[in-house]
User: What shape does this take?
Amino acid sequence: MKYKILTTSFFVALVSLNTSAYAADAPKLEKCTGIVKAGKADGQSTVDGKLVDWILMPAGQCIKFVGGKVVFDEK
Assistant: This one.
């Protein structure tokens, strides 16, 4: 019985360490404007490529699209 509790607690600790590693590897996202298609971005966009509509993209991917511009938050 003692070994069963020890083994169970070991596996619980191992899983919790593994889960926290995935949270640290979460991709950085940035707001990208100028590439949203009409009807996308929560259905608000009425024209393709409008500069006021944005979508979240992985960091560094926005500038690869023609007309893509990164929106920086004003803080």
Remarks:
- The radius of gyration is 21 Å.
- The first helix runs from residue 2 to 24.
- Residues 7 and 60 are 44 Å apart (CA to CA).
- The helical segments are 2-24.
